[in-house]
Amino acid sequence: MDSSESTMDTITQDEAELYDRQIRLWGLDAQRRLRAATVLLIGMKGLGAEVAKNIILSGIKAITLMDPNNIDDEDKMSQFFVSSAAPGQNRAEASVPQARLLNPMVTVTSDTSDPSEKDDNFFLQFDVICVTCSPTSLQCRLDKLCFENKIKFFSGDVFGFYGFTFADLGLHEYLHEEVKMKKPKEGEDNSKQTEETISTKEKIVFTRLEDELKFDWSADTPEMKRKLRQTPSAFFITRVYEEFLEQHGRRPHLKTIEADTKELQNLRIQLLNKLGVPAKVVPEDFFQCGFGELSPVCAIVGGVLAQEVIKAVSQKDAPLNNFFLYNGVNDDGFEAKISL
Amino acid sequence: MAAIMNGVLEKSLLENIKKSKLLMVGAGGIGCELLKNLVLTGFTDIELIDLDTIDVSNLNRQFLFRKEHVGKSKAEVAKESALKFNPEAKITAHHDSIFSPEFGLDFFKGFEIVLNALDNRAARNHVNRMCLAADIPLVESGTAGYLGQVTVIKKGSTECYECRPQAPQKTFPGCTIRNTPSEPIHCVVWAKHLFNQLFGENDPDQDVSPDTEDPELTADAGQAALATEAKKDAVGGIERKSTRAWAMDIGYDAQKIFNKLFRDDIKYLLSMETLWKKRRPPQPLDFDCLPGKGEIMNTSAMRDQRVWSVQECADAFTQCLSALKNDLNSRGENGMLVWDKDDHHAMDFVTCVSNIRAHVFGIPLRSKFDIKSMAGNIIPAIATTNAIIAGLIVMESLKILAGNVSKCRQIFLNRVPNDRKRLLVPCVISKPNPKCYVCSEKPECNVILNTTKITIRILQDKILKSHLNMIAPDVEIDDGKGTIIISSEEGETEENNDKLLSDFAISNGTRLKCDDFLQNYSLNINIVHVDKLDKEKEFEVVGDMSQFQPKEDENGKPEGESQTNGNVPSTTKAKPDDDEDDLVLLEDDAEEEISKSPGNLSRKRPAEPSEDESLIKKKKHDVAAGDGEEVIEIS
Fold first, then answer.
1. Boundaries of each THIF-type NAD/FAD binding fold domain copy (chain A) (predicted)?
2. B30 labelled ligand-binding
C-alpha cells in the first residue's frame, strides 16, 4: 500500500466531524491512510460481518465482500447483516445493503465467486486481503501472493468459543508512540507533571503462515516443553478445526453434529500426532464449545482482527505478530508467534 | 426463531438465555455492540435505558445509528435497528434517565442481570447501588480509546463499584485559574468560566477576575491590603456589579471586554508583584495592537486543526461575542446559554479566549481541535474496542447464567500485549471491601470539613449528592433527638439551607444518619472537624479513617490514586488469574460529559468538566511490562 502524497489530501469537514472521536485517538495522518485503502474480505459469516462493520466504520476507501456460499441457519446467531434474511441468498450479496448503511463514504461491493478459483491477478488490486472461514491451503496461497506483491495479509476464524487471527504484513514500518511523563522543572510543584509523546519509526519483519504451520514441535528438549506450555491452547484447538475444514472442504456443522464430533475427536489425535505434541494440549472435550459461531466471540476476535487491519493500514502502533488466539472458555486472549 | 441453536451452548444455559430478562443501561458505544450481541445470542427480553440523543460524532462506532437518526433517542433507534437482527426479540426502550424514580428497586428486581454500558461515574455509582439493593448481578464495563475493561459485581461475593476509593475529580485551585495559569488547560477552564459569567448561570466559584485572596499574597497582609486598594483603582468600580450586568451595559462590546480582560485585569495582576517573583509575568494586550495583525494566514489547513494567531483569535472573539449576544437576547429576559462543545460559537469563544489568555501568560497556544478535547472532556472512542468489550460482557453474562459467578473475571483489554503476551488480561475479582461505605453491612464514612464554614446546602448538594452520589437524601443528626436537617420532601427543610452545620451543634464527632430512599441506601457520616483543609478543598470524604493520613507525602497525585495504583500488583487489587504480575489498568468509557448525571434530575447544572477530566489519567505504568502502556484509571 502506497501512501504517497497524492493520496494524502485533506480530510473534509464532513469526515472530520464523522471521524472526530477516532482522529483524536490515531491522528489525521492515520485517517488519511485509512481513506486510501482498498480491502478484500473473504468469508462473510459472523466473523466476516464483524470485521466488515469495524473497518467500514473506520473509513477505508472501499471494501469487497466475497463469499460463494449462501446464507444458512447458523448465520442467525452471528451474521447480523443477514441474521433475519431468508436462507438461500448469497451471503456476500445479501450483506451489502446493510454494510453500506454503516458508512456512506465507503464503497461496498460484493463478489459471489469462489476465491480459490480466482486468478492471481484479481487479488493485486487490493491493499489488504483478509481471509475468513477458508481452508488453510487458500490462506497459505493468498498469503504468499500478498507477500510477493506487498499486500497486507490477514486471516482468521471462529469456532464456537474459540478463535484466531493471523497477520503477515511482510516488512512493515510503523510509528510507535510512547507517552512519557515530563519531570517538573526545579522549583515547580510536582503536580505540574506533564506528558509528552515520543514517536519513533519502527520496522518489523513477518513470516509466512505456511512457515508458521510447518514448525517442528517434536524436539524433546526443555525449551520445547516450555514453548508448548507457553503456546495458548487455542492455537492447537483452532488447528483441529482448520484441519477439518481443509480435509472436508466445509466447517463442522450443527446439522451433522454427531458425525462431526467424532471426526473432530479423530482429527485431534491425528493432528497432534502429526505435529508431535502431547494430546493434553487440546482438552478431550474441546468440541463441546466449538460448534457454530458465537456472536460475542465473533465480536471479540473480529474486533481484534479489524483493529490489526486498521493498524496495518494506518502504519501506526506495533502490530500483533502474528497470531492472536482467543479461548472464551477461560477468557484467554494471547498474541503468539510460533516460529521463533 | 432462537438465534442460538442447540449444540452451541449447554442445554440448561440455552434455556436460561431464553427465559432471562436483561436490563441494559446505556445505548452508546458499548451499548450498540452489546445489544447486537445479546439479540444474536438469543436473549429475547431486553430493556434498554438511555437519556441521550444521537450526535454525528457517534456514527463512527455506534453502528445502530445513521446520519438520518441524528437528534433522535439512542434507546429508541437502537431498539429499532436491533430488531432487524431478530424481529422476534422483545426490546423495551426507555428514553429516560436511569436516576428517574420510575426505575426503583422493584424495577431492578425484575431482571436476571443488569448490564452497564455507561460513560460516567455518577450513573455507574447509582446502578451499583440499585443492583446491590436488589441483589441482582451487574456486569460493569468501560472503554477509553484502545483500552477497555469488564467486571462482574455480585453482592456479597465481589467488590462493588465503590469498594475502592475513586480518584477525585480533577479540579484546579481558583488562584491558578484566576491569577497564575501555567498550562493550556488552565486557560480553557478560565474561558469556560468566562462564558458562564457573560452568558450563562452565575456561579460564584467561577469568578474570572484577579483573585486578591491568593494564598501567595496573604502571606503579606500589608501587600494584600494594598492590592485591595489597587483593585478599586484599576477597575474603576466594575467589580461591584456582575460581569454579566457590566457586559450587557456596554452591549457586549468586543473591544471593551477584550481590553478589560486582557489589558486592565492583567495590569492589575502585575501589581501583585509577589506572584511574579518566580514566574514569567503576564503581558497585557491591547485590542488594537495584536500579534499577527495584517498577516495572511495559511488557510489551506483546516481551520480547526491549525493554531490561530492572536489577531485571528481577537477577530473570532468579536464574531462569536456578537453571535452569542444575539443568541442570548433571543432567549428573553432571564434567558441564559449553557456552554456546549458542539455549539459552533460557544466552542469558538472558548478557543479564542483561552488562546488569547495563553498568549498573555506565555503558554503555548492550541488548535480548536485540541481545545475541544480539553473543554469538552472528550475521550477518544473507536468501534473495535467497544466491540471487544461488548463481546466480553456477554461472555461473563453467560457464566452468570450458567451459575458460575465464581468463574467470572475482571478482564482488561490492553493496547499492546503485556510481557506474558496477553492482550486480554483476566483477573480474579476482589472480595468486597469490608469497610466499603456502600456495600458493607453498615455503611459508614468520615467527612472532614470545617463545621463553621459548611452550610446545609453544601452538605446536601456538594457532599451528599455530587460526591456521595445520593439522589434525594434525608439526613438526621444522631443526637438521640433525631433532629432532621435535610428532608427529601420538598418544602420541609429549605429554611435550613443557608445555615451552617455548627448552627445545629454539629461538631467534631457528630454522627449524621443519611438515607436515600430510591437507592435503598443508608449511610452514617462521622463529622471530622478541622479548621483548614489544604488545596482550597471545602471537604474531604474518607471511607476508612486509617486511609486518612496527613498529606506530608503530597506529590500532586489525586487522593485515592496512589492507593489504587499502589495496590495493583499486590493481592488486594484484582489479581491476575495465573499469578502473573500483569499490569492492571482501570479506566472508564467516559465518553463526553455527564449528561445523565443526577444533576439533570433534581437541579440544573451546566455540564462541568468534572467527570471525565479526572478519569482519563493517562500514565506511564512502571510495571514489568515497561512498554509505555497507557493506563487510565477510573476512580
1. 19-336
2. yes
C-alpha of A268 from chain center: 24
Residue B128's closest CA among B586, B438, B542, B514?
B438
- Whole-number Å distance between alpha carbons of B82 and B93: 11
Q: Where would I find the beta strands (DSSP E) of B4-137? A: 21-25, 45-49, 90-94, 113-116
Furthest-apart CA atoms within chain A: distance in Å: 75
Residue B582 marked ligand-binding: no
Q: Cα Rg for chain B, rounded, in angstroms?
A: 26
B232 C-beta neighbours (distance < 10 Å), count: 12
Question: Is B188 in contact with B374 (CB distance < 8 Å)?
Answer: yes
Q: Has residue A26 got a pLDDT over 60? A: yes
Is B632 labelled as part of a ligand binding site?
A: no
Give the model's confidence band at A10: pLDDT under 50 very low, under 70 low, under 90 confident, else very high: confident
Give the nearest chain B residue to A46 (CA atoms): B40
ipTM: 0.95
Query: Confidence band (pLDDT; 50, 70, 90) for B593?
Result: very low
Positive or negative torsion for Cα A230, A235, A237, A243: negative
Tell me the pLDDT tens digit for each residue of A220-276.
899 999 999 999 999 999 999 999 999 999 999 998 999 999 999 999 999 999 999
pLDDT at A109 > cutoff 60: yes
Contact A92, A110 (CB under 8 A): yes
The dihedrals phi and psi of A91, each to the nearest 5 degrees, come to -60, -45
| Residues of B catalogued as catalytic | 175
Helix (H, G, I), strand (E, B) or coil at B84: coil
Residue A295 and residue B40 in contact, taking contact as beta carbons nearer than 8 Å: yes
Q: Which chain B residues are within 8 Å of A108, Cβ to Cβ?
A: none
A25/B145 Cβ within 8 A: yes
Q: Locate the chain A residue with the closest alpha carbon to B86.
A: A84
Q: Taking residues A97-118, what's their average pLDDT?
A: 97
> What is the per-residue pLDDT for B46?
98
pLDDT beyond 60 at B584: no
pLDDT of the residue at B232: 47
Q: Do A335 and B421 touch (CB under 8 A)?
A: yes
Residue B136 annotated in ligand binding:
no
B627: pLDDT strictly greater than 70: no
Is the pLDDT at A203 greater than 80, yes or no?
yes
Interface contact flag, B61 A21, Cβ < 8 Å: yes
Q: What is the 3-state secondary structure (H, E, C) of chain A?
A: CCCCHHHCCCCCHHHHHHCHHHHHHHHHHHHHHHCCCEEEEECCCHHHHHHHHHHHHHCCCEEEEECCCECCHHHHHCCCCCCCCCCCCEHHHHHHHHHHHHCCCCEEEEECCCHHHCCHHHHCCCCEEEEECCCHHHHHHHHHHHHHCCCEEEEEEEEECEEEEEEECCEEEEEEEEEEEECCCCCCCHHHCEEEEEEEEEEEECCCHHHHHCCCCCCCCHHHHHHHHHCCHHHHHHHHHHHHHHHHCCCCCHHHHHHHHHHHHHHHHHHHHHHCCCHHHCCCCHHHHCCCECHHHHHHHHHHHHHHHHHHHHCECCCCCCEEEEECCCCEEEEECCCC
Among candidates A76, A79, A14, A21, which has minimal Cα distance to A46?
A: A79
Using CB atoms within 10 Å of the CB of residue B523, give its burial: 0 to 12 exposed, 13 to 18 middle, 19+ buried.
buried
Q: CB distance from B402 to chain A under 8 Å?
A: no
Mean pLDDT of B216-235: 52
CB contact under 8 Å between B85 and A11, yes or no, is no
Low-confidence winner among A52-66, B111-125, B411-425, B585-599 (lowest mean pLDDT): B585-599
**Mean pLDDT, chain B, whole residue set:** 83
Kindly give the pairing relationship between strand B21-25 and strand B45-49: parallel
Q: Which of A84, A254, A318 shows the shortest C-beta gap to B416? A: A318
| Residue B384 forms contact with A (CB below 8 Å) | yes
